[in-house]
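Notes from hallway chat w/ T.B., transcribed later so I don't forget. T.B. wanted the structure written out for a chain they're using in a teaching module, and asked if we could keep both sequence and structure tokens in one place. Agreed to drop them here.
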Amino acid sequence: MARAGCCRVAPGIGGQRLLNMPQVDLIIPAYNAGKYLRATLDSVLAQSHTNFQVWVINDGSRDDTETQALSTGDPRVHVISRPNAGMSASRNLAASLGQGEFLALLDADDLWHPDKLKHQLQALEARPDHDFCFTAFTWWWGEERPSFFLEPRSGMVDEHMSGWIYHHLVLDNHALPSSVLLRRSAWNQLGPFLCENQRTDDWEYLVRASTQHRFVRLAESYVLYRQLTSSLSKAVAATNEHETMRSHLLSRFGMQAPVGEGTPVDAQALAEYQYRGHSNFADQHCARGRLGLGLRCFATLIWRGPRRGHSLLRLAKSLFRRVFPKQVQV
């Protein structure tokens, strides 16, 4: 059941709501996010573009996530609580509830610059043949960053990462979900997120989108991307999900997007990203996961080459970290 706050907050800049701008449905999946959610919502409610609805999907949380979501008192914030189904399913549910012309994604612990929505909407208005807009972002460990919110942004476009960008996105997920704004028409055409693997569902969706739609990237950072110290203690995945997904994407779409004026994937860059993905997986297991699996992965890298010296050195460093683990403050 949808629930909303009970009182209206102050209107937007200059005391007037920007009702002439397109409505945005803002999607926030939230699982045990009570510690961070209110700050996230405050950054949304501080947007200079104010014509939006917020859909917080409380995905089976066991903390005060629902209370924090309702605490804003803003009628634009709607809270739906349900049993846990995962982030992708939560995004799909929220998308089905709204009716706005645009959808915006935001994780429950990230923060936005006040002009994010305004500049993204302006970018897509200026480029009606582009359906997705994403932005640069800033890695953030939770420290106070008042200058981030006070410094003006110009809305400058990164042309290198705009247009048909399949050949970029299949190498790495450059489009942080919390930075993405898209037209609902594109959502209706593409269909929902997969609900198969929470680590790669968003990457699959954005690569799939890039085979059919143009993207525009704003060059300045509009998102503080929170890094949680507690995530360092999570168990390492038993399978190399990232490289498995990349192989699936390349098998499905090939070395060039099937539509548009796409540029072929750079084979040399692809080999480097693939090596890095396999090396990272081996390193994680040797340092703090399943040692036997990590050693087998490193052995494969060393046997196949070509960067045998680098693989041997990284193996040594991984084993050193396993024997002398760093003490992480949580």
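Follow-up for T.B.: Residues 1-19 have pLDDT under 50 and may be disordered. Might be a good example for the class.
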